[in-house]
Amino acid sequence: MAAETGVIMLIYLDHALLEARAKATEETRPFTRVDLNAAIMVGAVERVRPKMMTVVAIMGGLMPILWAHGTGSEVMQRIAVPMIGGMVSSTVLTLVVIPAVYS
Q1: How far apart are CA 68 and CA 88, in angstroms?
Q2: What does the DSSP assignment read for 41-103?
Q3: pLDDT value of residue 30
Q4: How far apart are CA 82 and CA 76, in angstroms?
Q5: Which run of H or of E encompasses 23?
Q6: What one-character DSSP code corresponds to residue 34?
Q7: What pLDDT score does 22 carry?
Q8: What is the pLDDT, as a whole number, of residue 75?
Q9: Sign of the C-alpha dihedral, residues 64, 68, 70, 73?
Q10: Which of 8, 12, 73, 92 could covalently link to 43 via disulfide, CB atoms 3.0 to 4.6 Å apart?
Q11: Do residues 39 and 32 touch, judged by C-beta distance below 8 A?
């Protein structure tokens, strides 16, 4: 999941970068670091809502498994906890780390 959303984030960042470069070329000025940072911000912000919707939906489905009591719940809880942690770390990776490394 993290790899897929990371690739999509890179596609959005590349698209925003191409648009910023085209705009700078159209205005006959050099592409600067400020333009790069603005493009990264635009590309990253476009992915916040879809990523958060995905994370909330998956975590919403896992929370009942985490809080369940009954037959088989002990095994399922051991599966749900790492998945919830993975969703949190995937969110941080996609929305914070990838744009920072991209810059």
Answers
A1: 21
A2: HHHHHHHHHHHHHHHHHHHHHHHHHHH--STTHHHHHHHHHHHHHHHHHHHHIIIIIHHHHH-
A3: 93
A4: 11
A5: helix 2-26
A6: H
A7: 94
A8: 86
A9: positive
A10: 12
A11: no
State the helix-helix crossing angle for 2-26 and 33-67, rounded to 10 degrees. Answer: 160
| Residue with token string 């990253």 | 44
Regions of the chain short of the pLDDT cut 50: none
Buried/exposed 60-99: b ≥16 CB within 10 Å, e otherwise:
eebeeeeeeeeeeeeeeeeebeeebeebeebbebbbeebb
Instruction: Compute the distance between CA of residue 83 and CA of residue 86 in angstroms, rounded to an integer.
Output: 5
- Tokens 């603005």, located at residue: 38
Q: What's residue 26's pLDDT? A: 94
State which amino acid sits at residue 98. I
Global pTM?
A: 0.81
Report the chain's mean pLDDT, rounded to a whole number. Answer: 91
Structure tokens belonging to residue 72: 């088989």
Q: Which two tokens stand for residue 44?
A: 């990253």
